[in-house]
Amino acid sequence: MPFDHLIHQALLLTMEPRSRPLAHGFVAIQGTEIVAVGQAEDRENLPPARQYWDMNGDLVMPGLINNHCHAAMTLFRGLADDLPLDEWLQQHIFPAEARWVDYEFVYTGTLLAAAELIRGGVTAVADAYFWETAARQAFAESGLRGVAAQGVIDFPAPGVPNPTDNIRVAQEFIDSGSASSPPLITSTLFCHSPYTCSAPTLKQAKDLTRQRGLSFFIHLAETRWEEAQIRRQTGLSPVAYLDSLGILDEMTVAAHAVWVDPADQEILARRGVKICHCPECNLKLASGVAPIPDLLARGLVIGLGTDGAASNNNLNIFGEMNLAAKLHKAIRLDPTVMSAREVVELATSKGAQVLDLGEITGTLTPGKCADLIVVNLHQPHLTPLYDPYSHLVYAAAASDVQHVMVHGRWLMLDRRLLTLDWPTIKRKALALAERINSTAARFPA
Ligand SMILES: CSC[C@H]1O[C@@H](n2cnc3c(O)ncnc32)[C@H](O)[C@@H]1O
Ligand SMILES: [Zn+2]
């Protein structure tokens, strides 16, 4: 029986442990699944395919994974810049969210984000926001894989005016997801932070995700302000505080982990907490630099994330790879840390493990889902090529992604989006932005 797609004549990165780049590589796909991977000479025993895709030497690799995003915040991009996190959040973003964020805002903003993510080679994303049912719907339409997490915070929030309802709303979101959501999207919750969620809220939220076997997400140890605040309130660091509540385990994903001293690092490693490194957002908000080489040396599983477009200000994982590779070299005065290969692993195979999707995606392996991207190497800035990992991290751009496939389905071919109606998304996004712009009290004090 013929299989569906044969992607061939590729420079292939499978991203399996210890794998090497394969020249004249191929990937055979049946339905949603990869059925064979190899080099030209291994093709002889393969049945014919329904469709052949000659990549003419372009790079084929697993899709990139964005481990931390607030997709709908694309509609707040550039609204408030050049501020520290506490001021950015409390005086600008929370008031703007209170005023503007509803189902339609989140739906449109997430479609806008999905377009940017796909065009940047992302095939799986972990999102967290309010009105997350709208985000889940938008992701489902886009064809992206991902985790949609309903935000939990002990303040009035969009769609959850009374904070005492926050866990109930998250539970309903999770349960409606397992009943009806498309198989590519997992539904869970995201506790905003140790400084905006009370101890009972954190414990209830963790209990809920434990009962359902889901990942628990949180912004953790992001700023020096947070560190000082939690120490003042509890006498413990943010990491030690969450550990004292029983929150930390291998199904906990901590975004940022900037202010983690060796004792915190030891706790994170012992509990098997997964980390999402967001270097660009941490630089822009001047939050600091997470000690990623130390955390990697302790064996933690780490992925990369952009955070939202209002604090980054893009959803570009190529940019995160580039920064993650260079930042730690400069801080440590050591160019050997964070090799290009290691950084591409964070953006692919390790990123999938962070989202508990390691069995499903993150490497080009027979039996896993066909989530892959094709990078156009036939360009001046990528010619000649000695080391594909080097080009991906130090030379390539998001716009070099030519084709994107998720779950055996092309989402983009020759940079044309196939699942999303870009003119409609653009029109709706501009209409919402016009309303935001026309308000005199854009930044209520
Ligand atoms: C419950 S998650 C959504 C919530 O988080 C806010 N947010 C976005 N980026 C950050 C960040 O880097 N640190 C803390 N909070 C952030 C977002 O505006 C939503 O209110
Ligand atoms: Zn965030």
Automatic annotation (TrEMBL):
Belongs to the metallo-dependent hydrolases superfamily. MTA/SAH deaminase family. This is 5-methylthioadenosine/S-adenosylhomocysteine deaminase. It comes from Desulfobacca acetoxidans (strain ATCC 700848 / DSM 11109 / ASRB2). Gene3D superfamilies: Metal-dependent hydrolases, Urease, subunit C, domain 1. The lineage of its organism: Bacteria, Pseudomonadati, Thermodesulfobacteriota, Desulfobaccia, Desulfobaccales. Substrate binds at E97, H192, E222, D307. One of its GO terms (molecular function) is metal ion binding. Residues 59-410 form the Amidohydrolase-related domain. The keyword Hydrolase applies. Pfam families: Amidohydro_1 (PF01979).
